[in-house]
Design goal:
Layout lengths: L9 E8 L3 H12 L4 E4 L8 H4 L20 H5 L10 H14 L6 E2 L4 E7 L4 E6 L4 E9 L21 E4 L14 E5 L3 H13 L2 E6 L5 E3 L7 H18 L21 H14 L15 H17 L6 H5 L12 E3 L2 H5 L4 E5 L5 E4 L3 E4 L2 E4 L2 E4 L8 H4 L2 E3 L6 H4 L18 E3 L12 H21 L4 E4 L1 H16 L29 H13 L5 E4 L1
Parallel strand pairs: 1-2, 1-6, 2-3, 4-17, 6-18, 7-16, 8-9, 8-16, 9-12, 10-11
Antiparallel strand pairs: 4-5, 5-6, 13-14, 14-15, 19-20
Helix pairs in contact: 1-13, 13-15
The structure holds NADP nicotinamide-adenine-dinucleotide phosphate (NAP).
The site of NADP nicotinamide-adenine-dinucleotide phosphate has 28 residues, from helix 5.
């Protein structure tokens, strides 16, 4: 059989979409099972989010000694990290190192975007079509498309009129951009904006930062790694990884203090907050047990954060605009910065508060906000992603009896365990909505899912079982549970991308599972031990 471009139709056991951390490990595991696997990847190389996000200053906010695979002693011993928080080029080199070491690239078709996947009931196979004219079939279809991969430029009027150059942080030119001598507008002050603005300002003659929501940010405390800590990790990583899977966030470089605020003395609270702030990173959100659970407890940490941030702001009047005051600390992703607030003190950097001075449109010359036109040579959109569902729904997925995933999820994603969705047999999501995903160390959660999916597929193939599908009842119960647990936290209070609030028209509901990696892992184990309870297994 040939399609219109003359390519042959090919059968695989499994098709994986995406060759980031998730797709690479999934490929490795399924190949070890003896399956014939094809990965389709839109980029020209492996890396996923780290392939595309090459903006200046791009850096991981999880410590590099933990932000690496933990499934192979050989792989981890063969790589040496240099900094506490690895920069994007180093992470991408690491991913290529792993891909080469495991000889993964021969099964990955690069520069190929999957357009659609359709389940054929009679044969029980998925038919997958790509923008390069591939038309392949597979029993298992696995979305390893990442949570933050569908970059989003807001629908500003007039962008097509702009005579300068514009960029999105999530799709940065590979050759880099030199802003020397330029006037630059940066729109967005989430992690990507906060990381890139200091470097852009080092080059540019003038930078105008457009801020919609003031964010909590703390100094990352990046530094070169010491030989002793590198060595210690090499000796212990695999063992520590087992432990990481029992923790709430899959991170072990700090511990959550479980004592409630009211059970601590003011001195103890101050000590916890200070030491965690100085440590840098997400440790700050674990200063006491109810920090993310009650407004009163959160406010103590938020006040502390605002006080620390204010100390770094010198320009008159600036602190007022920069102080986050419309959401509890941690309910939008906490930002880790290197000299962000100090950069805003510089005379050639201006901050525009978009809430007071809304952006009206992009013009030929730059950005028009509240009647003022900001003339610039370049605009950087650090405006984020259609998170968690954007990349999944970017593929036109049709399940049993013509059911479209886009239709099914029109009011928000519905999954069982974030792994599967009723009506879509043999379709797996890696770190899908309804799993801890972005609230955890992504690599720990990816490994947890890939291991579970591998065991599941192994059970099916060994048992001569052709099909697994979440039941609607189990899915309804899980969706309700995810909402209920999120409702016990402060997270839903913020207009965050966790809630879909950054995309106009997107349904608002809290997408990740807040129960934590450890508790969630116990549930995964129980489900598997009960022969995939909540899933229907069939011929
Ligand atoms: P983001 O957190 O969604 O930030 C986007 C920014 O653009 C926000 O300030 C947002 O304002 C603003 N924005 C969006 N639409 C706008 C509009 N129409 N007008 C004006 N402003 C607008 O995106 P991100 O910074 O790319 O980060 C996304 C996530 O990726 C992070 O939270 C993190 O999980 C991950 N990330 C991690 C790192 C790291 O590891 N260090 C680095 C980069 C990204 P509002 O807040 O008002 O929506």
């Amino acid at each position: 059989m040939t399609n219109k471009e003359g390519k042959g139709s090919t059968n695989y056991d499994a098709v994986i979409v995406g060759a980031g951390f998730a797709g690479m490990y999934m490929l490795h595991r399924l190949r070890k099972l003896g399956l014939n696997v094809r990965v389709f990847e839109a980029g020209e190389g492996v890396g996923g989010t780290w392939y595309w996000n090459r903006y200046p200053g791009a850096r991981c906010d999880v410590e590099s000694l933990e932000y690496q695979y933990g499934f192979s002693d050989d792989v981890q011993r063969g790589w040496t990290w240099t900094e506490r928080y690895a920069a994007q080029p180093e992470i991408l080199r690491y991913q290529n190192y792993v891909a080469d070491k495991l000889d993964l690239k021969r099964d990955i078709q690069f520069s190929t975007r999957v357009n659609s996947a359709t389940y054929d009931g009679p044969s029980g196979l998925w038919r997958v079509e790509t923008d390069k004219g591939d038309n392949v079939q597979a029993r298992f279809f696995i979305m390893a498309t990442g949570c933050l991969s569908a970059a989003r430029v807001p629908d500003f009027d007039g962008l097509e009129d702009f005579k300068g150059k514009w960029y999105h942080t999530g799709g940065w030119p590979h050759e880099g951009v030199d802003f020397t001598g330029q006037h630059v507008a940066v729109i967005g002050t989430g992690s990507s904006g906060i990381q890139s603005i200091p470097i852009i300002a080092d080059q540019a003659d003038h930078v105008t930062v457009f801020q919609r929501t003031a964010n909590f940010t703390l100094p990352a405390g990046n530094r070169p790694l010491k030989d002793e800590e590198i060595q210690e990790t090499k000796e212990t990583l695999l063992e520590k990884r087992k432990f990481a899977r029992t923790t709430p966030g899959g991170i072990i470089c700090f511990e959550y203090n479980e004592t409630l605020l009211e059970e601590m003395t003011p001195e103890e609270v101050q000590h916890e907050l200070e030491s965690r702030w100085t440590q840098g990173g997400f440790a700050f959100l674990g200063a006491y047990g109810d920090e993310m659970a009650t407004d009163e407890a959160n406010k103590v940490a938020a006040d502390f954060a605002r006080e620390q941030m204010s100390k770094r702001v010198m320009k008159p009047g600036l602190a007022e605009t920069l102080m986050p005051n419309d959401h509890p600390v941690g309910t939008k992703r906490l930002c880790l910065d290197t000299d962000y607030l100090e950069t805003l003190n510089k005379p050639h950097v201006d901050l525009v508060n978009v809430r007071e001075h809304p952006i009206e449109r992009i013009t030929e010359k730059g950005v028009l906000a509240d009647g003022t036109e900001y003339d610039v040579d370049a605009i950087v959109f650090a405006t984020g992603f259609d998170a968690m569902t954007g990349a999944i729904l970017g593929v036109d997925i049709t399940g049993r009896d013509g059911l479209s995933l886009r239709d099914k999820w029109a009011a928000g994603p519905r999954t069982y365990l974030g792994l599967g969705s009723a009506g879509f047999p043999n379709l797996f999501f890696i770190t899908g909505p309804g799993s801890p995903s972005v609230l955890s160390n992504m690599i720990v959660s990816i490994e947890q899912h890939v291991d579970w999916i591998t065991d599941c597929i192994s059970r099916l193939t060994n048992g001569n079982i052709g099909m697994i599908e979440a039941t609607p009842e189990a899915e309804d119960e899980w969706v309700e549970h995810v909402n209920e647990v999120a409702g016990m936290t402060l997270y839903p209070q913020a207009n965050s991308w966790y809630m879909g609030a950054n995309v106009p028209g997107k349904p608002r509901l809290f997408m990740p599972y807040t129960g934590g990696v450890g508790i969630y892992g116990e549930k995964l184990d129980e489900v598997a031990a009960a022969d995939y309870e909540g899933f229907r297994l069939g011929a």
